[in-house]
Write a structure and sequence with these properties.
Blueprint: H1 3-13, H2 19-22, H3 27-42
C-alpha cells in the first residue's frame, strides 16, 4: 500500500487520527498500526465494520481496547 492508502485506511478505522499527524510516521510504522487496528476490529464481539456516528462518519474504537504495545514515534528526517 502507498502511504496515502495506509493513512486513508487508518483514518477510516480511527477518525481521531488526523492525516497530517499520521504523515509524520514512516510507512512501516503506519503499516504496523493499521495491522493493530484491524486486529481490534476483528476481535470476537467487535463490529465487522467501523461503527458510525450520528452524522454517518465512522467513530474511533474505544481506547481501552487497544493492545499495550510500543507507541509509534514520528520518523525523523
Amino acid at each position: 500500500m502507498t502511504k496515502r492508502e495506509l493513512i486513508d485506511e487508518i483514518t477510516h478505522l480511527n477518525t481521531s487520527a488526523s492525516p497530517a499527524f499520521l504523515a509524520g510516521f514512516a510507512d512501516d510504522d503506519l503499516s504496523a498500526y493499521l495491522r493493530r487496528l484491524r486486529r481490534i476490529w476483528a476481535r470476537p464481539g467487535a463490529p465487522q465494520t467501523a461503527p458510525e456516528a450520528q452524522d454517518g462518519s465512522p467513530t474511533p474504537a474505544p481506547a481501552d481496547n487497544y493492545p499495550q504495545e510500543k507507541p509509534l514515534q514520528p520518523a525523523l528526517f
